[in-house]
Amino acid sequence: MTEQVLAPVKYVDFKKENIDTNIVLSLKEAGKTAEAIRSTEKVTRIVSTVLVYLFILVLAMTVLFPFYWMIITSLKQLDEIVAPVQTFFPNIVMWSNYAYVFQVFDFTTYMINTIVVAAVSTAGTLITTIFAAFAFARLNFKGREALFMIFLMTMMIPGEMMVISNYLTVNAFGWIKDQTLLDAYAAMIVPFWISVFHIYLLRQNFKQIPNELYLAAKVDGKSDWSYLWKVMVPLAAPTLISIVILKFMGTWNSYIWPQLVTKKDEFRLISNALRGSAFSDPDTGTVEFGYQMAASFCVTVPLFLLFVFFRKYIMKGVGRAGIKG
Question: Could you give the C-alpha distances from 59 to 52, 62, 63, 93, in angstroms and in order?
C-alpha cells in the first residue's frame, strides 16, 4: 500500500503574506457584537418576563382582594367594621358570627331551592343545547346559516331588556298569581332553558368532528339520533362539562329574576335570602355586616370549590370551541 504523507502545517504570517489585518479585526468585532446582541436579548427576555409576572400578580391581587375583605369582615365586630380607620385583619376574631348565622338563617330551605332550580335549569339547558348545536352543525336545511346568525344577533341584546316580556309570559302561564312552590320553580327555570352562547359554544365543537365520521355512520345504517349520542356527545365531553359548570354557577348566582317572580320568601334562592332582614337589628334597623359577610362566605365556598376542581374542563372546553375544525 502506498502510504499517504501528510503535508506539513503551514503557519501563515499575515504580514509576510500581505493579508489585510482589517478583515481579521472586523471578524473579531463582529463576534463581540453578536455576543453583545445575545446578552441584550437575554436581558430583554428576563425583564419582559418579570414585567409580565408583576402585571399578572397585580391583577390577581385585584381579583382576590374583595374575597379576602369578605373573609376578614365576616370575622370582625360591627364597631370595627364601621370604624373610620379600617384594619386588614380583625383585632378580635369573631368565630361566633358563623355560629349565629347558622342559628338565624334558614340555610336548608334556601339551599334546597337553589340546588333544585340550578340542577333542573342546567339539565334542561344541556338538552336544548345539544339538539340545537347538532342541528346547526350537521343537519342541512334551508336557512340554517341565516337562522344561526339571527341567534347570534340576540346575544347583543342585554338580558335586562327581556325581563318584562319574560315576566308577562310566565304570568300568562299562571305561575305568578296564587303561586305555589312548583309554580315558583317553573317561573325561575323555564325561561332560561335556551342559551344562545352555549349553543354557539357546542356548535363550534361539533364542527371540529370530521364529517367523514357522520358519512361513515350513515353508510353503516346509523340514525342521526344514534350518531349524536354515541359519537358526537362523547367527543364533546369537555365542552359539555364546561357548559354544565357555567350554567350551574350562573343559576346559583342569579338574583334579579328570582327576586321578581317569587312571591314568598320561602320560594326564593340563596342569593335573594342574603338580602333579608335576618342580619338586621330589629330595634335600630342597622345591618349586621359581619353576619351578612359570614353568610355570603358560606354561600360562595361551594362555587369556589367547584371552579377550583373543574377549572381545567372549563378552559379545555372553551379553548376547543374557539378552534375551527
Answer: 11, 5, 6, 28
Please choose, from the candidates 74, 29, 132, the residue with its C-alpha nearest in 3D space to the C-alpha of residue 293.
74
Is 106 in contact with 269 (CB distance < 8 Å)?
no
Tallying the residues shown for the chain, one arrives at 325
Q: Regarding predicted confidence, which is higher, 304 or 13?
A: 304
192 closest CA partner among 247, 147, 271: 247
**Residue 69 CB neighbours (<10 A):** 13
Same domain, residue pair 118 and 238: yes
- Which CATH number characterizes residue 284's domain? 1.10.3720.10
Give the end-to-end CA distance of the chain in Å, rounded to a whole number.
67
Q: How many domains does the chain have?
A: 2
Q: Scanning the structure block, which residue is given the C-alpha cell 478583515?
A: 23
Q: Where are the alpha helices (DSSP H) in the chain?
A: 21-73, 78-81, 96-104, 107-137, 144-153, 163-172, 181-189, 196-208, 211-219, 224-227, 233-235, 237-253, 256-261, 270-273, 289-321
**How many other CB atoms are there within 10 angstroms of residue 3's CB atom?**
4
pLDDT of residue 18: 47
pTM more than 0.85? no
Q: CA dist 124 to 2, 3, 52, 236, Å?
A: 91, 90, 42, 18
pLDDT tens track for 115-170? 999 999 999 999 999 999 999 988 888 888 898 998 888 888 887 788 888 899 99
Written as one string, the DSSP assignment of 72-86 is: HHTTS-HHHHSSSS-
**Which residues form the domain of 38?**
21-73
- Residue of 311, 310, 301 whose CA lies nearest to 111: 301
Both 47 and 182 in one domain: the answer is no
| Torsion angle in degrees (nearest 10) through CA of 103, 109, 111, 113 | -160
Statement to judge: residues 171 and 316 lie in one domain = yes
Q: Is residue 289 part of a domain?
A: yes
C-alpha cell at 146: 341565516
